[in-house]
Amino acid sequence: MAEVxxxxxxxxxxxxxxxLQCPYCSNPLEFASMQxxxxxxxxxxxxxxxxxxxxxxxxxxxxxxxxxQDLPQLIKYxxxxxxxxxxxxxxxxxxxEKIAQFQxxxxxxxxxxxxxxxPVINDMLAGSKKAFEKKKQIAKLVxxxxxxxxxxxxxxxxxxxxxxxxxxxxxxLEADTVELAICQFxxxxxxxxQGLLPTKAQLERAERITNEYRAKLKAANNPCKLIFVVxxxxxxxxxxxxxxxxxxxxxxxxxxxxxxxxxxxxxxMHFPNVKDQPLSDIWYKSTGFNHFRGDAWMxxxxxxxxxxxxxFGGCRCQAFMLTGDAANTDPVCSKSEHHHMIIQARxxxxxxxxxxxLTFRNKKNSKMILVSKG
Length: 374
Ligand code: FES
Fold this sequence. Notes:
Layout: E1 9-13, H1 40-52, E2 57-61, H2 71-81, E3 84-89, H3 96-105, E4 109-114, H4 119-126, H5 131-144, E5 150-155, H6 163-172, E6 177-182, H7 187-191, H8 193-196, H9 200-219, E7 225-229, E8 249-252, E9 258-259, H10 279-285, H11 287-290, H12 308-311, H13 316-323, H14 339-348, H15 363-373
The structure holds FE2/S2 (inorganic) cluster.
């Protein structure tokens, strides 16, 4: 049996409710059927148990975590336990009063996501006419309350050509760190992959412009840090997803299901719920968490690969989504017998697909998907 590490990073998906409808959301397609959110007291228990087990970082995410009215209590409880707390938000629903309240409760970090630099695209992706201006105001407030301003842009085919405007916007807002993360294909993003994956030419241009801006910022002594995250669909080796299965990441979904990563719920295996089992049993003893720990489960070519300690065979969820078997080598790897699927996806990125043709993440579409799956 593989040696088991500590669940250092706890992700609390407080809710699947969200005012936005991003077509690249990583939430499950069937989120409309998942309604039994953990209560405040149940979240307290999760935080207490996780902290006792060695968790140090706690991310509040969703959906949109701001829709939980008990967020200040959850932050305070986590802070008092000694967690480093991070709010991952779209900013919609945030205002000065709330930021002050969260700060008072001990919140350490806020990450605001943007959709694009262009208000029209931003608002269309966000499904709200006010999203863009509101987000700019929030970003400024985050700075006012002396939080490091960390902005996150999910980059895809429909906003990648505005990378320059996006970076300019971040500089204008005096961002400290900007994550330009090319879309990863899980949940709704996988459903919309053909319309979201940038072409190779788009990607190369965006990376070149980002590098030019890095040089300009350095020359101007501007501390703004640009992080450009290349999509694994354009790599030849897979990412070390979650730093290895069940190694440091523990996700708790709104209904209390415990997962080794946010996307694992779709895998054909049982994942326990914090309402039914102690968290330490879930982490150390459950089949779901032990199944892909270590390397004993690996088939060839991973088993004899010299890089298996570096990438752990890639992403189990991606292997499942693309090949139907989570134990397969991640097809991103050029050694995988399924790598042609990635090459095919790259080719498909050359086809035009309008933004309006994407399936937006909302309750109506989620219900339709549920009906179609019977
Ligand atoms: Fe689940 Fe990569 S997202 S293992």
